[in-house]
Design brief:
This protein has 14 helices and two strands, in the order ααααααααααααααββ. By secondary structure, it is mainly α. It has a single domain, classed as Growth Hormone, Chain: A. α8 runs parallel beside α10, α8 runs antiparallel to α11 and α8 runs antiparallel to α14.
Amino acid sequence: MPNSHPSCTPPRDLYLVVVAGAILLLVTHGLGRFIYTPLLPYLVDDGQITAGQGAAVATWNYLGYLLGALLAIRWHTISHIRMLLPASLAVHLLTTLAMTQTDHLGAMSTARLFNGIANGVVFVQAPALILEWLVLRNRATLSGHLYIGVGLGLLVSSGLVSSSAHWLEGTERWWPAVVLSIPLAWWATARLLRLDVPVRAQSDGETPPGKSPLFDRASVPLFLSYAGAGLGYILPMTFLPLLAKDQLPADHWLLDGAWFLAAVATILSPSIWNYLGAKIGDLPALRMNFVVQLAGVLAAVILPGALGLAVCAALVGSTFVGTVMLTQRIGRALHPHQGPRLSAAMVSVYGFTQMAGPWLTKQWLEAGGTLTTAFGIGVVALALGAVFAFFCAFAWGGLAGLIVRGHERGGGIIFLGNGTRFAQTPIPGGK
């Protein structure tokens, strides 16, 4: 989509690009990754896997997600993105198709591993590419709407699983995800590959992004906070329907409704936290986000049953995407020239801790613990994440109010609490 005058980009083109990015997140995150969550109780009932084996398969997928993010750190320029994005979508389609052909635990784990790699690459590179394109047009804050695709993906995955539950069985349950992914991935990838993100000339004395440090006094507390968020949210987002199956009678509406409720809340999440970030600042909004998310996971532990499940679904669903969006935006404010490399590093930390979630749950269950008490792991992780979020301001030398405002019009200006301002700029090395 060449455009010699970025500032004159028609609104229709802006929103179509955002829609394309949201669709890619819907495909890889919703139909690739999180469809496994509502599928898991059915796969257990079908006798295909046990709950412990299901946790192990999920761990392989999250390991893949981590590896995909690490790949995105290594290959982070625009030319790399143009190559890896379509390749990753192809891997997503092939691995999801593979799940329709085997019930062998090793083969399933391998397919989910490579599906996770594809997901990790896309989740880093698609938003990063779109953000840089939007920054050139002073519309950076539109990037927050990309993450609506995650919520829509959860909603679509819930609908596909529940609507086909009575006429598909075992490996057949993956077919709806395959069929829907193909046209969506094709259209969205084709549109993003046409985006024009030119090379930015590097200033004299400027440190290339590949050589400047990602971890410093300013960013380490944010990374640690993000790590806690990754471990905290992944337990309900992997095991919520299975927990509902353990706690509720067979005909209760929350057996499928808990995941549906989480999906609806997730759709609303980007708008809620985008608004709060603009109103009170991204860092205060992030702290609030942690408190709400912590309350959600805690509810599942101290209020077992329908009430706790509903509260958990609503509060976690309405926060975890906001955590991602706010943290990524704060990170970019700290290191504005790191671009996709910074995003990939943060996703890697997030991916490592969320990979640990199912593994720790498996160990807990094998040691005789219950799924309900396993959610306590998430409570501790989110509490620690909240603590580090409150320490961020001190690490930044008193910039207590990092505020990313740009929402007034263009979205290209970042304000720091001491009155400093600078423009968001595109990454170097793009082609």
